[in-house]
Amino acid sequence: MYHCGTAGALSHMINGMYGMIIVEPRGGLPKVDKEFFIVQSEWYLGEQRQLADSVKARGAVPVPDYVVFNGIPNQYKEHPIKIGTGKTVRIFVLDAGPTEDSSFHVVGTIFDQVIKEGIELRRGNIGSWGSQAVDLAPAQGAIAEFHVAEDGLYPFVTHAFNFVGMGAIGLFQAGDGDPKK
Description:
It is globular and about 45 Å long. It has helices spanning 9-14, 54-58, 75-78, and strands spanning 2-3, 18-19, 34-43, 66-69, 81-83, 89-97, 102-106, 113-116, 119-121, 133-136, 141-146, 152-158, 169-174. The chain has a domain at 33-44 and 66-174: Cupredoxins -  blue copper proteins (Immunoglobulin-like). The strands form three sheets. The chain has a six-stranded mixed β-sheet, with no helix packed on it. A five-stranded mixed β-sheet has the order 5-13-12-7-10. A two-stranded antiparallel sheet has the order 1-2. It is mainly beta and 181 residues long. 31% of the residues are buried.
């Protein structure tokens, strides 16, 4: 993650001054069928035509107006991300915060490979264990891979479900989205 480090960093971040940097190993990561980049962040709205409300963001118990993926509430709920059935999907996910934790989860799937903070949960580990969610504190990122066996709509959320109603929900659409076909 990158963001400014000057005085007022919180104010800059709640106004959208942050982003994701991806550093891959020499030679790159193994090829997958689809890759996506998802940044979870919070909006603390100020008065109309004003900057974000830093008083709300600095509170002992901050309450964001929106928790979003890639800057816009519900955008992937209204416009699902298309993936292939049976294809490997890689998600680079970042919790930009600035305050709230994330438990990133794709409903109906198990991540079969996760890299977080340099620790790797690999395919084919003893017992073939996967991960249902990736826990991220603000400024942490991870790489998660999964596949879906059937056509359908697969919601992705932060498992802090109070934020789903604030915009932190999207859909992956496998095939035509209809699991009955």
